[in-house]
User: Fold this.
Amino acid sequence: MIIEIALLCGLVVFSAAAIIFRDLLRSAICLAVASLLLGIIFFRMKAPYIGAFEISVVAGLITVLFIVTIALTKTGGDVRESKAAAWIFPLFFVVFLVLDFFVMRGLIGKIPALGAAPEEGGFGDVLWKARTFDLVGQIGVIFAGVLAVLALFRKRDKDE
Amino acid sequence: MVFLFIALPLVVAGILPLVGKVSKKFLPDLLANAVFIVLLVLVFFEGRGIAGQEAAVRELSWLGEPLNIRLLLDGFSLFMLFAVALVGFAISLFSIDYMDHYGSKANFYALFLVMIAGMNGLLLVTDLFQIYVFLEVAAVASYALVAFGLGHDELEASFKYLMLSAVASAFLLAGIVLIFGVTGALDFESVSQGLAALDSRFLVGLCAAFFILGFGLKAALVPFHAWLPDAHPSAPAPISAALSGLLIKVSGVYALTRVFLNVFGLTPALSTVLMYLGIISMVVAALLALGQTDIKRMLAYSSISQVGYIVLGIGLGTPLGILGGLFHLFNHALAKSLLFLNSGSLQMATGTRKLDEMGGLGKRMPVTSVTTLVGSLSIAGVPPLNGFWSKLIIIVALIQAGRWAFALIAVLASVLTLWYYLLIQRKAFFGKLNEKWASVREAPFWMTVSTVLLALLCIATGIFFAGTVNSWVRPAADAVVKGLQTALGSLGF
Assistant:
């Protein structure tokens, strides 16, 4: 239980730090650490497939892409961190803990323990057979992302 | 064939960036408009196919092997598919001339078609997680479309929209996860049965609260509306029309109606919450619209107000209330798209969105002036236009249900609506022509064709309202009222 709480606290800390840092490199590293912690949480919750995806794709591949992009586009010179980062983050964390304490105390006992859903076969069966339509949606999301990059990073033609 | 509603826009969206390398304008224009014509034909074809049935579940197969893709087509989804195809076609026609000066037209159409595919997917899904997936498809495309102009305001509005939309998605996902945890199912029918058998009112209430927050943000109901008055005006006019005319209705109102009326079941408490959200949105947004000087911002606030009417009618939960709500959804999709497109014509002609800087443009842009008047009077609920009938049905339903106070507020909000639409008309089109606009000309051909088409539809739907209601709206309302329990149960789903 203590390990779970420590992992969840770490997840909140690094997620918030990723938002607060102005330096994109620091921000990307904090995001990677947050993803790593989330991946470990998934493993501990007996969801190894999603844990492996989270660590390999989000914490690994995407972080590498972020860092390469930052390295290629950075103009040099250190970014001055906002002074607010020094006090907003601890304040945010304390407020979060207080709210979490009261919300969870109110919820415990009212929400029945969530049982695991019935097993529907292996990971491959679920992905390719039970949730085929989700893959169509995933294709749509990837399309939208690629097209968004093409549209938002476009060069204007001379006649425009 | 039903799968084409999703596959066709997605496939053409995939081809368009390549086509854009060969032909910058003509082929992208042709392909995008052809997709909407095919979608319209499909709607009529499928409509004939399910005539007389309560619902049809189509299972897809490939070379005889089932693909485990189930699509639900009932009166409600067909009605919404019709609205999406019709308004999408008008927007696509308008974009032929309007999007010329933005450049990268092929990418614009591709993103627009992905958004349409996302909306169509959402209208055909049979389970809660698929709602989330297709909401994201439409949303990701819409973030890019809002920022398409690449100006500071567009990027800022898109970022704000993305942030609040992510909050909405998080709430929806939390609700879906909780429901999956307690019922062990995601498809509508099993979830509905699981929730009915569940002995935890608190948990069901918590899930309902998450869904209200999520769909409330997507539908921009007050107090979850902060993103809309920035996002909708900043987008290019065709996208403002698509967001206000379609997206908030599909990802907000449709999904909310499907989940609450067909899966959760509308309890008195839920009905009261929805009705109060509706009435507050209606009044607060109408008052906020009055104070606007930017035409697109005024229209954006008007969208929030009109969604309030729709949610009020649906939240009432009586057959007549649902009928009125859905009819108003359709009418508002037509009229608000028309008005946003006309605001684009005005912005293109004058270079401004400020109403105070306009004036007398009716003399230079007579068609835009007349079509704006039609759209304004329709939304304000002036007879014999379509908006009058849908508002009348909602108000009669409220009176029938003994909700006199709500009915009175709905009438008063309608007066406020007429007031700010007459302000638009007076400031933009009537009075003495501002000398700055002496050289202004009527909107280009395809933009005019599109707005005239929508204006004629507003008039025709008003005059032949009985036909529209009986052929499209009543089957949709029946599907919502009867719920999926009976409809899908009979199909062994």
